[in-house]
Amino acid sequence: MDRENRIAANPLLSLGQEIFTKTNGMCRMGPGPGGIGVTNPQESRICLVLLFQPALMKDAGVLAGSGSGMEVTVAGYDPGRWRRLPDDVVKEMEGEKENPITRKIASAVRELSGMPMHISYGQYEEAFALLADWELQQETETAVKPALGGPVMG
Q1: In 10 A of CB 13, how many CB atoms?
Q2: What pTM, to 2 d.p., does this model score?
Q3: Strand pairing of 35-39 and 47-53?
Q4: pLDDT in tens, 90-109
Q5: Beta strand residue intervals within 54-148, DSSP E
Q6: Parallel, antiparallel or unpaired: strands 70-78 and 35-39
Q7: Which of 86, 85, 50 has the alpha carbon at shortest distance from 70?
Q8: What is the pLDDT of residues 10-31, one digit of tens each?
Q9: In 79-154, where do the E strands start and end?
C-alpha cells in the first residue's frame, strides 16, 4: 500500500496530514521519545499539540492491555509556560497582525480542536511505526553520500 493510501486508512495519520496542510507545512506530526507529537516553528506564540486520553506516558499500562483505544484532541499551548491556551486566547491569536505564523497555527488549532477523534491502540502503533519508517527513509534519501578521496583507478 502506498503512502497516500496508508494515510487515508489511518485516522491519526489523516489528522497529521490535515495539520500539515492547514499550517502550510509549518507543523508536522512525527515520532518522538514520548510518542507521536507535533513540531512547531519557534517564531510562533502558540504551539499546536496533540492530547491523548488516557495519557500515553502516564497510563501506558492501561493502554497496553486494553482494546478500548484513546481519544485524540488538538490543542493550543503557550510555548513559554507550557500551558494549554483557553479558546478565547486562541481565537484572539487567530487575528494577530504582527505574526503570520502565530495567526496560521492558531487558525489550524481552532479548526481542528473541535474534532476530537477516537482511535484504537493498534491504529496508534501503526501510525507511530509508519511515521518512524518514513522519517528514517527521508533521512536516508537526503543523506549526502561520502565522496571517496584519493586516486581513481581506471
Answers
A1: 21
A2: 0.83
A3: unpaired
A4: 999 999 899 999 999 999 99
A5: 70-78, 83-84, 117-119
A6: unpaired
A7: 50
A8: 999 999 999 999 999 999 999 9
A9: 83-84, 117-119
